[in-house]
Amino acid sequence: MNRLLYIILVAALAAAMPSAAHPDGGKKAKADSVYIGGEVYDSFTKARIKAVVTITSEDSALAKTDTCYIWRTSSSFGFRVPKRPMRYFIRAEAEGYKTITDTFDLKPRGRKGYYAIPRLLMKRGRDDIYKDVGLNEVVVRGTRVQIAYRGDTIVYDASAFNLPEGSMLDGLIRQMPGVELKDNGDIYVNGKKVDYLLLNGKDFFKGKNKVMLENLPYFTVKNVKVYDKSTEKSEALGREVEAKDFVMDVNLKREYARSYIANAEAGAGTDNRWAARAFGLYFDDHTRVAVFGNANNVNENRQPGSDGDWSPAKMQRGLLSTKQAGLSLQTEDKDKRIKDNFDALVRWNDSDNERHNSVETFASDGNIVRGSSAFNRNKDFNLNINNYLTLPKLHIYSYVNLDYTNSSNTSWRRDSTLRDTLTNRSWSEGLGRSRQLYFFGYTGWSQPLPWGDYLVLFADYSYSRRRPAEDFSLTGTQYATDGTTDRRNNYADTRSDSYSYHLGLSYDFALPDNWSVRPGVSYGQNRDINDNARYRLDRLASDRYDELGLLPSTRDSLLLALDADNSAYTNVLTRSYGTHLEIMHPMAKSYVYVQLPLYFRREGMHYRSGGLDTVASRSYTDFEPYAQMEFSKGKNKFELNYRMRVTQPEFQSLMPSDDTTDPLALRINNPDLKAITRHWLGGKATFRCDSIDLTWYAGAQTYIVRNDFGTRTTYNSQTGAYTYIDDNVDGNWDFELNGGLNGTFDKKRRLRYVFDASVKYIHSVDFDVAYDTSADVLSTVETMRTNLNLNLTYTLGKLTAGLAGKLTARNSRSDRQGFEAINAYDYQYGANLKYTIPVLNLDLSTDFNVFSRRGYGSAEMNTDDPVWNAQLSKSFFKGSLVAKLTAYDLLHQLSTKSYSINAQGRTETRYNCIPRYLMFSLAYKFTRKAKQNDKN
Fold first, then answer.
1. Which domain of life is it from (predicted)?
2. Residue 577 and which of 103, 453, 474, 890 are 20 to 30 A apart at CA?
3. Domain with 105 in it: what CATH number?
């Protein structure tokens, strides 16, 4: 593995370094030239202008013309000119504006390759006969192209999709070809995860995709673009200094880009289901304010008529009642000297989760079966505040995050362990509450130097406090062999405080041909204090402690119940000294980024538990290289990535102690535990053929782990208790091939197909379970996991019909004695329909799918579950009011079941889920459109 790592790093560095000049002088020509560029805006509104800019050198030897490139928030132009002192005359022209001229004196210095021309501000001309004329919107209906490409940008035309009135952004995203929307809000485009969502090129609750997905009305969206975006740091520095983000940019229709938008919806249904939400948005060229509120107890946002992805394994588990409200404020001054983005989100959740487990643990002396049922009720309050501040002129960028959580929960659990006969039964009841405060901040500053280099400083800082964190539990364990029962009343009081800060300095060498090399150093310090006090209240001489949640009235009485052997106090101070080297080469059609960080860390810990009170220390070095390479050839794109990660065992887990809190699960620390090293290598190629409307991709990736954490497990055949100790194990790795394609069959692009597939081989190694004595026998399970997805969609006017089919196969083998081969299959087939009924103008959406399972160990898992959903909607008052009738799970067959397998065993799980219901709702929307007199 070390040899493979060495080869990869050498290849990355060889590819990253600038090549020698070619005999034809092409490289030399670039080295003897520089790039000058600027931006053009309206002098009053600071709106972008697509102007034609011409430059002429003072000696008349050079004259060039460029049309401004309108991109997100900028309107830019640029020219490559000889690297020598020269005065240039600049002329900007645009329809409706007065022509302006200016001069720019180029004074090349050092290795600097880019020179910024001061912004050009244009005034409207008196002959702009259209400036006060308002034109009514003209709607052209016909066959619209759902997906198009502009360079490396994917553009989805929102008007080409058929969605019912009242739909939100998530309904559009789910229909876009090549796009997958996960239940947690994660979005994948052609198999690649989107880092975050943008609204008109700007952040909107960054990192919280579901806020926009569930609250932005579909009718406001013009198109959705997917592209690679420069990071905040790169934009502040004015050049690419780190890998770009992969983003999805939601662009509003022109009439909503400067307007007021408001919509609200409320509904009530059977089985006490209810939902309500409201959303308001104000948008102009420099300010955006959004507020929203959402409350419901349906914990489901997928709509009937989509691809029918209601797989039980992906359903929202349990029952959830949620209330949330949010505010987003983004502003900038007209001269773009300051930009600020403020987000605040407050949320109340009340969840009700029930789980039923069947677990089979593999063992050479006979497999062990455990069955369990559990219930958990959680109530959470969360406040999250984020603020991004950028001062582009000063090259300062700052981010702060504040998060506060207050939680409480109640629970119960029932378990049993069997082999040939019943071994034990156990039960427990629990109460808990906790409060946690977390703060994080980051500040960066860069100073461009006259000769083209950059000096960069950064600092990040954090603070966390968790207090109180209390847990009560009443437990009982009955042993079948002798009929005895072990009853316990446990109380845990956990408190933690931590802080950290890191300071860094780097110097960016700007090399010819847009190469840059950045060495840097950093220093950081972390302090983590954890006080985990456990008590056995059943040891106190009073029957009152047979009840849950009662504490003694005095501190002295509580100390009598202290379980010192299972209590621990740790105070860890970590100092980190780092150095790194980054090599970058961002170009229009290629990108190379290599990061070579090296960190030396020194930890000191005060540890106290039971009879042990000691001070310990350790030192280690982490090397975690990363390499990313991308290049485009025509309409095709190729990517290659490598990453290595090192995970050290927690310092506390190396202390010679054990945890006997649970009588059926004794956990022993292993002082000899080593660090895990993970390697990830992946590549992907994306191809386009516009003439036949075909896009397809293929990729491969492998994940290799050295010194993975395995678990040595000893099973007591008399009591059914387990003893666990973590230890390192080698041999865990996997390899995956994936690919997909989407396109249309017909020239009018009415019949579209989307297909994707993946095959993953997983080699899983762990320690075999030993009976009544410790053993060092490894168990290996080889699993082949196959996924196939196919969607066909036909669109004609207001009719959209589709077919969907999916297959997930898990085939596992092992040479371990007594292992039975596992061949489990989940497959789905179904259809969906969206249609606007003429005359009545009634929108119908429905989907019908059958979810089937085969090959599971439990007969109750091998089922066929037909799921049918439907929705009728009708708009009134020109679409301002929409009435909807929604029916979920008409056949009452929906459930949540999941299955997993590894080298230790297999688990089959069932959860409770929301019952079927019928809901009637009303949605109202209000818009105040901007006047159509802005020619920009």
1. Bacteria
2. 453
3. 2.60.40.2190
Residue 646 falls within a domain, yes or no? no
Where among 188, 217, 252 does a domain terminate? Answer: 252
Kindly state the tokens that stand for 238.
């004015």
Is residue 38 one of the residues assigned to a domain?
Answer: yes
Tens of pLDDT, residue by residue over 831-878, are 999 888 888 888 888 989 998 888 877 676 788 888 888 989 888 887
> Do the Cβ atoms of 753 and 745 come closer than 8 Å?
yes
Dihedral over Cα of 825, 189, 388, 590: its sign: positive
Clarify whether residues 157 and 116 are in a common domain: no
Q: What is the pTM of this model?
A: 0.79
On the question of a cis peptide bond just before residue 448, with omega within 30 degrees of 0, the verdict is: no
Do residues 77 and 53 touch, judged by C-beta distance below 8 A? yes
Give the chain's largest Cα–Cα span: 104
Distance of CA 790 to the CA centre of its chain: 25
For residue 511, the surrounding DSSP H or E stretch is strand 485-511
Helix (H, G, I), strand (E, B) or coil at 416: strand
**Is residue 154 located within the same domain as residue 90?**
no
pLDDT band for position 929 (cuts 50, 70, 90): low
Q: Which domain holds residue 221?
A: 147-252
Distance CA 873, CA 922 (A): 9
Same domain for 116 and 189?
no
Residues 158 and 74 in one domain: no
For residues 728 and 428, give the distance between their C-alpha atoms in angstroms, rounded to a whole number. Answer: 32
Q: In angstroms, how far is CA 244 from the centroid of its own chain? A: 15
The 3-state DSSP class for residue 254 equals helix
In terms of domains, do 151 and 247 share one?
yes
Number of independent structural domains in the chain: 2
The answer to whether position 375 is within a domain reads no
Please name the amino acid found at residue 352. Answer: D
Contacts of 872 (CB under 8 A, 6+ apart): 842, 843, 844, 845, 884, 885
Can you read off the two tokens belonging to residue 775?
């053993």
Task: Tell me the average pLDDT across 350-377.
Answer: 84
Please indicate, yes or no, whether residues 161 and 112 belong to a single structural domain of this protein.
Answer: no
Rounded to whole angstroms, the Cα distance separating 368 from 416 reads: 11
Give yes or no for a contact between 734 and 762, defined as CB atoms under 8 angstroms apart: yes
Contacts 24+ apart (CB under 8 A), 669-672: 669/725, 670/725, 670/726, 670/727, 672/727
In a domain, 61, yes or no: yes
Secondary structure (DSSP) of 41-69: EETTT--B---EEEEEETTSS-EEEEE-E
Q: pLDDT tens-digit profile of 33-91?
A: 888 888 898 876 667 788 899 999 888 888 888 888 766 556 788 888 998 899 999 99
* Residue indicated by tokens 């579209």: 752
Q: Tell me which DSSP letter residue 258 carries.
A: T
